[in-house]
Amino acid sequence: MPENAPNSLYCLFGAQILTFDSDNTIYDRGEIWFEDGDIVAVCDTGGFSPPAEKPVIRQDVSGKIIAPGFINAHTHSYSAILKGTIEKDPLDIYMLSVIASGAAMTPRETYVSAQLNALSMLKLGITSVIDHYTERPALTADGLDAVYGGFNDIGIRATVATMFSDKPYIDSVPVDRQLLPQDVIDHYDAQARPSAQNYFDLMETALRQYGEETNRIHIILGVAGPQRCSDELIEMTGDFQRTHNIGLHTHMLETKTQAVMRNPEKGSFVRRMVELGSLNDKSSLVHFIWGQEDDIAAAKEAGATIVHCPQSNTMLGAGICPILRLRDHGIPISYGTDGSNCGPASYLETLRLGAHLMRLTEPDFEKWPDAKDILRESFQSGARTMGNAGRIGSLEAGMRADFAVMKPVDHWHRLMGDPILHLFYYETGESVEGVWVDGVETVRDGKVTSLDEEALLTEAEEIVIHRRENLPCGVADAVAAQYPAFRDMILKTLAKPEPDMDRRVNLR
Fold it and tell me: What whole-number distance in Å separates Cα of residue 132 and Cα of residue 225?
């Protein structure tokens, strides 16, 4: 990754600086000073005097805007090589294609896909990401090394949440087995269950190797979703959480077909995970569309953060997360773009869609959060989800130097009104000229500094062609054989009335 001059103090001056500190301070012609990745001062021009003996590197950014780097709280790096592969299949049917194609990625493919994922984000001003890292059929040390190396070498800040589940897919959804062909059932039943012990052994090693939260790249648990996990796995997750006190990032109640899988005797998935000690204030629950009141109460009690992914939620027809209800309960909300196969990693488009959906589902317009509230929430809760609360998410002394430099000269920003409204409602990320992560310039003049962008894209294209040409035979037939039963499952589940579970028409 790129490096800075050692023992030097950096100063970017002349820009309008949006700090998103506790007072939402804006400096119209400000300066940001940082050294060894730590912000030393953010102030008006001339407001800080550096030590006389300290070498200073100055950069004139007059006419530009500096804001904290965006924090993408949920994505899947493997999906960077799957752009343009899905359109309107609901999640349960989309998963059939993923499982049927099922070819494991090589470590090199994993590395390239992680870098491609990070490339898109850095160029749009995203400095931090949680990668819900998926490896099929199960997590390996080589794969984990590859994704860690990909993120580390390009220079982004990343939390890698290692995804794992141990139930066969058809046992994690309410599909009627009698509607499935016998050979399909036999295939699922014959599959070896991945070893939970192997997963936790690998995580134990990974934490020793690169798990510290203060690292720019660190590792947390990423158990896939409770409906995909045996009771034994959930219990082991709780034991590991209590022993190591690390974060857990998991899908939760993304679809109604997941929500109806709750055991009537055990009740809320969320409550059970709280009781087993696997949820706490370091946990994040992704999607949470179909949470009922007992789920919401349990999430609040645990201190968990909800990760809102409105782009993938709507693309896959999963439903609308009741964000305003969650906010009313005081639950922190962060935002994620989800996989690149569900659309571009455009963080600001994600925030805007989230804001617009709130307005469509809440008639009392006085409850709608404004741009400033949503942006500040995305920074603060995003940092919390990353495991970096108090270290990133605002521009003030003592924070890490993660920020984006934008040049708002295009027609979208002229004439310029309120800069926060422009950032939220007009900016796409295309105005980003520079990005700094941990005090290192990772994007300069719109180009990532740590690699040859064209060479990376060319290699990624070659990987996609190779994987397409070597796709296992019978993928389309395998999906087609299961499609009728899954279609029946989805339509029946959505048509079935459930208390407090209407997420498609009216949330209130």
Answer: 11
d(CA 129, CA 388): 11
Mean of the per-residue pLDDT values of the chain: 91
DSSP 170: G
Residue 172 backbone dihedrals phi, psi, to 5 degrees: -105, 0
* One-letter amino acid for residue 299 of the chain: A
Question: C-alpha distances in angstroms, 498 versus 321, 492, 503?
Answer: 16, 12, 11
Average pLDDT over residues 106-115: 96
Cα pseudo-dihedral 133, 228, 251, 267, rounded to 10: -160
How far apart (Å, rounded) are the C-alpha atoms in residues 133 and 77? Answer: 7
Of 279 and 507, the structure prediction assigns the larger pLDDT to 279
pTM over 0.85: yes
348's CB contacts (< 8 A; 6+ apart) are 70, 124, 423, 424, 427, 428, 429
**Residue 173 to residue 255: CA distance in whole angstroms:** 10
Cβ atoms of 290 and 317 within 8 Å: the answer is no
DSSP codes joined into one string, 312-364: HHHHTT-----HHHHHHTT--EEE----GGGS---HHHHHHHHHHHHHHH-S-
What is the DSSP track for 75-129?
Answer: E-GGGGG-TTS-SS--HHHHHHHHHHH-PPPPHHHHHHHHHHHHHHHHTTTEEEE
How many CB atoms are closer than 10 A to CB 36?
A: 14
- % the chain with pLDDT above 70: 96
Measured between alpha carbons, how far is residue 421 from residues 367, 393, 424, 425 in Å? 18, 18, 5, 6
Residue indicated by tokens 């600001």: 348
- Of the candidates 410, 377, 350, the one whose C-alpha atom is nearest the C-alpha of residue 64 is 410
Q: Is the peptide bond before 179 cis (omega within 30 degrees of 0)?
A: no
| pLDDT score of 262 | 85
Q: What is the DSSP string of 14-32?
A: EEEEE--STT--EEEEEEE
Please report the DSSP string for 382-404 in residue order: HHHHHT-TTTSSS-STTSB--EE
Q: Return the structure tokens found at 405.
A: 């430099």
